[in-house]
Amino acid sequence: MAKRDYYEVLGASKGATAEEIKKAYRRKAKELHPDRNKDNPGSEAAFKEVGEAYDVLKDADKKAAYDRYGHAAFEGGMGGGGGRPGGGHGDFASSFSDVFDDLFGDFMGGGRGGGGRQRAARGSDLRYNLRVTLEEAYNGLQKTINVPTTVSCDSCNGTGADGGVEPTTCPTCSGMGKVRAQQGFFTVERSCPTCSGLGQIIKNPCNSCHGQGRVEKERSLSVNIPAGVETGTRIRLANEGEAGMRGGPSGDLYIFIEVSKHALFEREDLNLFCRVPVSIATAALGGDIEVPTIDGGRSRVKIPAGSQSGRQMRLRSKGMPALRGAASGDMFIELAVETPVNLTSRQKEILREFDTLSEENNPESSSFFKSVKSFWDSMKS
């Protein structure tokens, strides 16, 4: 019986790319797997046919020969494989193993082509939450923090072995760090259970670290917090995280900044806002007030006569510094006209007299009540 065209077997076009061929193979292999076709006695043969087709078309050289000569490329010695496509490697297990590596190689320690054995494990990254005041965020500071972490074991120099002796090759995986097991048509690859994927074992573990190559310890670190940081700013300290396993590289330490709320200032990006209460007399007559600034200084602000609550005045370059660059934000003074409380009889008398005399001095009130009167008149009509 004549062999079917390999492209037809996979359901791919002759101009298909390597990625398209791989996708077609995955689809067909899943469709024809014997475990899903137990009532179909021909599924196993079809399944192997798909594996044979993919074994040829996945290889650029074999594919080129097949595109030119067809099945004849692998007959009579042309392919160097004794009549089998791919030189004796056309079985399904080999083909599926390649796809398996493509899919899961990153989780197995680097796939088939990287020498197999995993390197010594890198230490974990650490996170440290640091709260600073708004003044500290404005000025920047040098701060010492205590970080609970793991450090390289001094007793074994990080090797995990007693006396610092070098680990030996794992006899189970021969140093590859992984083992393979045949399960029917599948080749399953797992991390070696003996060495946990490291490819090496320790015969005499260090008493201090119990073979880990690292011990728990609290470290004191001096951290430079630059001026201009804000809540959410992240500072990375390379190699200051947990020590790696058995001499592996250390992780990094990430410091996340949180700026505390301030009693006087509210921050918005680089700008600061300060709500300042003023008396009715000052708002009406105008005057000067003294306001604080984030650098600890004072600034005099002129209040124009007739100022209303909510009016803002800007003090340029009195805000927060930019984290990068020489720019600075502004400070905005927001007036809050304060209504007096607990008035004396004399104060009330003066205010009533003032109210009587100031009907023409409240343009906003006059405009509002005129609009109200017009509204009521329209409702009546």
TrEMBL record:
<dbReference type="InterPro" id="IPR008971">
    <property type="entry name" value="HSP40/DnaJ_pept-bd"/>
</dbReference>
<comment type="subunit">
    <text>Homodimer.</text>
</comment>
<keyword id="KW-0863">Zinc-finger</keyword>
<keyword id="KW-0346">Stress response</keyword>
<feature type="binding site">
    <location>
        <position position="206"/>
    </location>
    <ligand>
        <name>Zn(2+) 1</name>
    </ligand>
</feature>
<feature type="domain" description="CR-type">
    <location>
        <begin position="140"/>
        <end position="218"/>
    </location>
</feature>
<keyword id="KW-0479">Metal-binding</keyword>
<feature type="binding site">
    <location>
        <position position="153"/>
    </location>
    <ligand>
        <name>Zn(2+) 1</name>
    </ligand>
</feature>
<dbReference type="InterPro" id="IPR001305">
    <property type="entry name" value="HSP_DnaJ_Cys-rich_dom"/>
</dbReference>
<keyword id="KW-0862">Zinc</keyword>
<comment type="function">
    <text>Participates actively in the response to hyperosmotic and heat shock by preventing the aggregation of stress-denatured proteins and by disaggregating proteins, also in an autonomous, DnaK-independent fashion. Unfolded proteins bind initially to DnaJ; upon interaction with the DnaJ-bound protein, DnaK hydrolyzes its bound ATP, resulting in the formation of a stable complex. GrpE releases ADP from DnaK; ATP binding to DnaK triggers the release of the substrate protein, thus completing the reaction cycle.</text>
</comment>
<feature type="binding site">
    <location>
        <position position="192"/>
    </location>
    <ligand>
        <name>Zn(2+) 2</name>
    </ligand>
</feature>
<dbReference type="InterPro" id="IPR036869">
    <property type="entry name" value="J_dom_sf"/>
</dbReference>
<dbReference type="InterPro" id="IPR018253">
    <property type="entry name" value="DnaJ_domain_CS"/>
</dbReference>
<feature type="zinc finger region" description="CR-type">
    <location>
        <begin position="140"/>
        <end position="218"/>
    </location>
</feature>
<dbReference type="GO" id="GO:0005737">
    <property type="term" value="C:cytoplasm"/>
</dbReference>
<dbReference type="GO" id="GO:0005524">
    <property type="term" value="F:ATP binding"/>
</dbReference>
<dbReference type="Pfam" id="PF01556">
    <property type="entry name" value="DnaJ_C"/>
</dbReference>
<dbReference type="GO" id="GO:0006260">
    <property type="term" value="P:DNA replication"/>
</dbReference>
<dbReference type="InterPro" id="IPR001623">
    <property type="entry name" value="DnaJ_domain"/>
</dbReference>
<feature type="compositionally biased region" description="Basic and acidic residues">
    <location>
        <begin position="31"/>
        <end position="46"/>
    </location>
</feature>
<keyword id="KW-0677">Repeat</keyword>
<keyword id="KW-0143">Chaperone</keyword>
<feature type="binding site">
    <location>
        <position position="209"/>
    </location>
    <ligand>
        <name>Zn(2+) 1</name>
    </ligand>
</feature>
<feature type="binding site">
    <location>
        <position position="170"/>
    </location>
    <ligand>
        <name>Zn(2+) 2</name>
    </ligand>
</feature>
<dbReference type="GO" id="GO:0031072">
    <property type="term" value="F:heat shock protein binding"/>
</dbReference>
<dbReference type="GO" id="GO:0008270">
    <property type="term" value="F:zinc ion binding"/>
</dbReference>
<dbReference type="GO" id="GO:0051082">
    <property type="term" value="F:unfolded protein binding"/>
</dbReference>
<dbReference type="GO" id="GO:0009408">
    <property type="term" value="P:response to heat"/>
</dbReference>
<feature type="region of interest" description="Disordered">
    <location>
        <begin position="27"/>
        <end position="46"/>
    </location>
</feature>
<keyword id="KW-0963">Cytoplasm</keyword>
<protein>
    <recommendedName>
        <fullName>Chaperone protein DnaJ</fullName>
    </recommendedName>
</protein>
<dbReference type="InterPro" id="IPR012724">
    <property type="entry name" value="DnaJ"/>
</dbReference>
<feature type="repeat" description="CXXCXGXG motif">
    <location>
        <begin position="192"/>
        <end position="199"/>
    </location>
</feature>
<feature type="repeat" description="CXXCXGXG motif">
    <location>
        <begin position="206"/>
        <end position="213"/>
    </location>
</feature>
<dbReference type="GO" id="GO:0042026">
    <property type="term" value="P:protein refolding"/>
</dbReference>
<dbReference type="Pfam" id="PF00684">
    <property type="entry name" value="DnaJ_CXXCXGXG"/>
</dbReference>
<feature type="repeat" description="CXXCXGXG motif">
    <location>
        <begin position="170"/>
        <end position="177"/>
    </location>
</feature>
<feature type="binding site">
    <location>
        <position position="195"/>
    </location>
    <ligand>
        <name>Zn(2+) 2</name>
    </ligand>
</feature>
<keyword id="KW-0235">DNA replication</keyword>
<dbReference type="InterPro" id="IPR002939">
    <property type="entry name" value="DnaJ_C"/>
</dbReference>
<comment type="similarity">
    <text>Belongs to the DnaJ family.</text>
</comment>
